[in-house]
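As described in the Methods, two query proteins were run sequentially through the folding procedure within a single session, without resetting any intermediate state between them. The first query and its resulting structure tokens are shown here.
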Amino acid sequence: MNIRILVFEGADEIDFIAPLEIFRRAAKYASGIHVRLVTLEARESVTAAYGLRVVPDGVLEDAVSLLIVPGGGWAARAPLGIRSEIEKGDLVNRIAALHSHGTIVVGVCTGAMALAAAGLLKGRRAVTHRAALPDLQAVAGEVVFSRVVDDGSVVTCGGVTSSIDLALHLVERFWGHGIAERVASEMEYAR
């Protein structure tokens, strides 16, 4: 499975770091898991919301099984982050195109707002960070107050720490309960 985790200027660190670590740990126990941090266009580095400088593994390609879209800066209306990525339009277009070709798209925290902007949440169950819930309620089919909401080809999660629950949920969905529990145990994380 080709898992791509998008990074961009102002992305919230835990939104992409937690899934990256969890999927890479799962790859030790399940074959065929290929995880990469990617950007929409070639960049040497990206500076996340709290100053972490990240060197991406490459550019988002078209052959993606699972795309993770982090949030960041939505509630604060930060000059960089998911809101500015949505306003540029490229991210929204790529999400819609990938989803239409069978990619499972995952919105972490306010990354769900990018899925909404791509039209993927109409008629679907979804959740986001509590500060963005009113915005999500205006565009989603049904807001569910849960840490993780799996609606098949679209998956969302609440605030930043729920990115851990989300990644473990996806590991369990695709590679089984045993591997998810093993990863959680290694991380000393109580699910």
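Immediately afterward, the second query was submitted; its sequence and tokens are:
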Amino acid sequence: MLGYLDFLFLSYSGRIGRLPYWLGYFVLGVLQLVVIFGLLKLSNGTLADLVALDRDLETLPPQMLQDLMMHVGLPIIIISVLFLYPTYAITTKRWHDRGKSGWWSLIVLLPVIGGLWAFIELALLGGDEGDNDYGPAAY
């Protein structure tokens, strides 16, 4: 089981079908939320205190905004960056199943159409039948 998880989340080679793609994204999403909410809990309610104090962030004193960024914003950014690697590994293997390079992930940088194109290709369409340049067929 651990070998498959390594393959799914850490490897850029091979192919995966739609089900492992969806499950991988679900697991990563839940795990990321758990870590982020855990960090928010460890911040001793910093975010809740600031929001309760003043709902308009523009009128918060600069020191409070700095505290908010350091105790909440920065950890969330760091966690999001750490989750990029396994997310891209899953996405690359799914592109491989469609017979395309992992570089196709950059299509999401095109406004509107890029994200839609990637969603249709990766989440909805099936993979290549039989072997392709990236390995045997994924199931």
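The helical segments are 2-10, 18-42, 46-53, 62-82, 84-97, 113-124. We note this only descriptively and draw no conclusion about the first query from it.
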